[in-house]
Amino acid sequence: MSDPIYYGKQQIDQDDVQAVVDALNSPFLTQGPQVAQFEQALANYVGSTHAIACSNGTAALHLACLSLGVISGDIVWTSAISFVASANCALYCGASISFIDIDANTGNISVAALTKKLQQAKQIGSLPKVIVVVHLAGNSCDMQEIFKLCHPLGINIIEDACHALGASYQGKKIGNCQYSDCCVFSFHPVKSITSAEGGMITTNDPNTAKRLKQLASHGITKEPSELQQAEQPSWYYEQQHLGYNYRLSDLHAALGLSQLAKIDFFIERRKQIFQNYQSALTVSNLTLLEQNIEGESAHHLVVVLIPNNKRDVVYQGLADKKIHCQLHYMPIYRQPYHRISDAAINTFSGAEQYFANALSLPVYPDLSDQQQQRVIRSLLEIMNE
Ligand SMILES: Cc1ncc(COP(=O)(O)O)c(C=O)c1O
């Protein structure tokens, strides 16, 4: 029987192993030079002024909300189709969350739905403080349009780019924050690069960067220029905010840094795999999610849209052949914790249509051509049964 194939997984080589071993043998296991080097390398790669490392993408989203001043009583909006962390970050701050419908062909926030929701919110005085936009599957949202709608209303934008390290929009890397206040990445093993667990926030605003850095480490600073009490001995530090221990360790940063050196190769291989699926599946009348014509996806996920209520049959048929696909995602508002009324669910036509049809196929740099052919053959066989 063939080996199992999963929808995503990391690719670790001997250089990665050596980088972690070197960090283990160094004087610092945490808060050493690897973290600062990883931050600088990532900022250089995406073209942002600042990058702040933290323990995972969820912590990064929480910190991003805190740094923009989200507090109890505020309203935050996010995409109906995302991982739950895109919504939970607002709740951690005591704010409430509300969902924006998506375009079922792209999986990303629908600009038309956002326009309508903003008009309604303006009328009743319930505009959000922050919008968390999600580049689903690594494919950019229409950032310029979203910015044009939100900026004049004073709404801050956080990009949840946990799927999108290596993607670009209008010829520039996602993470450069041209149309946002902060951009958040995750280095979970299935993502573009991994640090096992890990996250990063990019921003071009020095004050936001300073606040993020402090909040990720208990709200503490040791920076002489930031201290409230001047002329202190060098052991002195101050806690100026209620922060968290959301720091990344040097071990994780060493792995992340080593992986970042290979990102172009990883994204190129993902693109080849995407293109193979595209040519094999579109001739069989199966559609993949539409790509933003102003962008280049990171191809974190390859989502095929399976018509005629056959998605779960296909999922199970593939699982029986040891091909383990996944649904990214059930709408967040259908999770028991976030559940909204059936009447409210009916207003999310895009998210509901996507939810009925979407299935993420295996894509990761290590997926061999033979394995991909096995996935395609199996999928088409099940579709024709
Ligand atoms: C869209 C999105 N946002 C946030 C997260 C949270 O990232 P992490 O797992 O690093 O906390 C994920 C991770 O799966 C994600 O896919």
Structure, explained:
By secondary structure, this protein is α/β, with parallel strands linked by helices. The protein has two domains: 10-260, Type I PLP-dependent aspartate aminotransferase-like (Major domain) (Aspartate Aminotransferase, domain 2); 263-384, Aspartate Aminotransferase, domain 1 (Alpha-Beta Complex), CATH 3.90.1150.10. Helix content is 38%, strand content 15%. The protein contains 13 helices and 17 strands. A seven-stranded mixed β-sheet has the order 2-10-9-6-5-3-4, with helices on both faces. A three-stranded antiparallel β-sheet has the order 8-7-14, with no helix packed on it. A three-stranded antiparallel β-sheet has the order 13-15-17. α1 packs antiparallel against α8 (250-260), α2 (33-46) runs parallel beside α8 and α10 (311-320) crosses α13. The longest helix has 20 residues, at 263-282. It starts with a strand and ends with a helix. The mean pLDDT is 97. Pyridoxal-5'-phosphate binds next to α3 and α4.
